[in-house]
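Design review, sub-item: ligand-bound model
Attendees: FS, YL, KQ
YL presented the inputs for the tryptophanyl-5'AMP complex:
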Amino acid sequence: MIKGKAIVMSGIRPTGFLHLGNYFGAIQNYVKLQESYTCYFMVADLHALTTHPDTKTLNDNVHRVLAENIACGIDPEKAALYCQSHVRETAELYLYLNMLAYLGELEKTTTFKEKARLQPDNINAGLLTYPVLQAADIILHRATWVPVGKDQEQHLEMARNYVKRFNHRYGEIFPEPMAYNFGEDLVKVPSLDGEGKMSKSENQLATLYLADTDELITKKVMKAKTDGGPTSPGMPKPDYIENIFQLMKLVCDQNAIDHFEEAYQNCNIRYGDLKKQLADDMVKFISPIREKAESIQNDKKYLSQVMEMGAIKANASAAETMSLVRAAMGLNY
Ligand code: TYM
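KQ shared the predicted structure:
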């Protein structure tokens, strides 16, 4: 559990609509943490450039991520909700950290290998040093707790390595940041097709977005893969059925889960009913967020004020850290 005056930092790329994975892996915890800690939550627009170099839709995407964060419960008065490119010191710290990051380890990063496979014609240096930029975002605020989903674990481990190297070479400036989920394992929200996880830009028919209409949510859930059902009592669940149960745990009440669990164990489960229950509860969960986000997103003036207010808080913290960094590095002549 967090003790004392912990600083919390996290970010989301504006590369598409936010989905249930973003909510349960990250935003849900932002909302809890903002009540008691100094929080910096950021729209990672610079990171988005590593995979989405066309900036025509960036403005809309940044506004939508902000609106969706607020609709999920982020209070811009409590947390600093800001845009990465509004904090110029990020680029400076990223540069210094790049001298402490080695090619071999960057090339081995899982997300780099995945993205390089997906965009073989654009394996740019920004993609390679993506975890270095992420480390800069975090340690710019000397944050210790980073609420993220399971897919970010390796990036956090790399951030700790850069911190250790910096502190060793130039003096103890940074605490080591840790991925945070209130002492629980980090969350991975699976996709509806049982293959991989929900994602902003891949696997769209198997991902539930916070902007999906009620009809679309129902359609996606009802299409989730099932089979003829268990044939002997106590049979283990295949992955795609296990996924449906996992998704139920996010939004359904325990009685409903127990009912279907028992039916599965007794081999009389009706998958149509199971999916109908999940679809109804997903609609109940997502529709208020969608409606709230839509109305916030249309209020561009309010969103600009939010970004400005967030940038003021984030810049103040960044300036303080960077004066310590420059002094520690001897760049203060
Ligand atoms: P991004 O934009 O891919 O995802 C934002 C957050 O959502 C979590 N997440 C998930 N959690 C559980 N199940 C899923 N299916 C799922 N999909 C996404 C992610 O773990 C993340 O917490 N590199 C980061 C952005 C970033 C950042 C940072 C994060 C930039 N700078 C500094 C923390 C600190 C990313 O690509 O997140």
